[in-house]
Amino acid sequence: MDSLIVNLCSDDQPDKAFQCDAIRMEGVICLVPEWVYSADGRDRVPARLIRLLDLPLERLPGYRESYHLQRPLPRRVLAGQVPAELDGKIDVVFVPLRFAGKAPP
User: What highest taxon heads this organism's lineage (predicted)?
Assistant: First the structure.
């Protein structure tokens, strides 16, 4: 699982860019807008993945692999809500929480 950064802007502020963590899974870049940490804070898993299936990404030069999403994204997508106009272009996957360690009693 590669750790990436995606620069993007929202449809409500298209002139203001921000960064979002991302990972590559099965060849697809997935935004990770929120992480959930284990009780000891050592491990983390994505709360949800926003799979970028058919949106234009530009590779940015730099020391860490990063990309720029070439179109504004509705901010509600980061919360897991996919508007009809993006159906088939993105996919939201809610990740079940699993941390290594002892099972609860």
Answer: Bacteria
